[in-house]
């Protein structure tokens, strides 16, 4: 099986087709962290994904992959792995950013619902910007940045597209994009997400590639 990884800064991903209404069942997100994040980071991450997706009519149910029983059934799902250390401690005045912020797995041209987000790279990318905020606000700002990277990857998985767009769906981000007070999908990408079709129910859970 040929495995290709497409990432945030140069990525592609899949989808389905039929209207997803505002009352559509929530999509299940199975998450796993290489290192457990502080509560403030996790809350801000989840709140930001909800804020970006709620106007489109998409809701998520978050589950810890490590606590699943292996018998769950979900109409739509994605498995998200957060790589590295997901906290806002030890920030430096100089960034040494290298590589993609997030990426989604593709096999033989088919998008797999498995996404990775690099906590380390996101922190390194925005750390000089985070230093401008009060210490007590940095976890929330960092968690929000992680949420925006994840929302980008989820767009590719659920919007039935191999292309980037504008807003959250654009090909590359600036530090300002990740730390600004507001960052949303534009109209075209919103319509694509609203007209995507849910996958058939999937039994059980799977590990990341």
What can you tell me about this protein's structure?
29% of the residues lie in helices and 21% in strands. The longest helix is centred in the C-terminal third of the chain and has 21 residues, at 138-158. The model is unreliable at 1-6, 9-23 and 197-209 (pLDDT under 50). Strands 1-6-7-5-2-3 form a six-stranded mixed β-sheet. The chain has 209 residues and is of the alpha/beta class. The protein is globular and about 45 Å long. Helix 1 crosses helix 3 and helix 2 (119-130) packs across helix 3. A hairpin with a 2-residue loop joins strand 6 and strand 7. The termini are close together.
Describe the structure concisely.
This protein has 209 residues and is an alpha/beta fold. It has one domain (3-9, 22-195): Collagenase (Catalytic Domain) (3-Layer(aba) Sandwich).
List the strand order in the largest sheet: 1-6-7-5-2-3
What's the total number of strands?
Answer: 8
What CATH architecture label applies? 3-Layer(aba) Sandwich
CATH class descriptor name: Alpha Beta
Give the ordered list of helices and strands.
Answer: EEHEEEEEHHHHE
Choose one word for the global shape: globular
Helix vs. strand class:
alpha/beta
- Tally of individual domains: 1
Low-confidence stretches: 1-6, 9-23, 197-209
Largest sheet: 6 strands, mixed
Helix content: 25-40%
pLDDT averaged over residues: 82
How many distinct helices? 5
* CATH topology-level name: Collagenase (Catalytic Domain)
Q: Approximately how much beta-strand content do the residues carry?
A: 15-25%
Distance between the termini: 11 Å
Gyration radius (Cα, Å) is 16 Å
